[in-house]
Known about the structure:
Mean pLDDT: 95
Low-confidence stretches: none
Radius of gyration: 13 Å
Shape: globular
Structural class: mainly beta
Number of helices: 0
Order of helices and strands: EEEEEEEEEEE
Number of strands: 11
Amino acid sequence: VQLQASGGGLAQTGGSLRLSCAAxxxxxxxxxxxxxxxxxxxxxxxVAGISWSSANTYxxxxxxxxxxxxxxxxxxxxxxxxxxxxxxxxxxxxCAAEVSRLLLWRSRSMDxxxxxxxxxxxx
Length: 123
């Protein structure tokens, strides 16, 4: 499975950005796709995820109510709509996919990763 993320850029505090991730290859093996981010000097952290089987969505507490993950299973696409952005949302955002039905949404449990896309939120 190959993942390609796009849509990062510069936004002001309170602004919005939309990230997209396109999956290709043996995408039928994926049970879920999600987004992680890594700020400078910090560990990679889970942001949001979506289950392909149940369409359930999952969010980190820090982004609940501000970010929305959605997906198009048939097109192997997942999106992250980010509203009310804060400077602490700054980081490199990675698209990832998990083949386990458990959908643990941990960095170590994700099976496929795309290259990151940089999101910068200015104050």
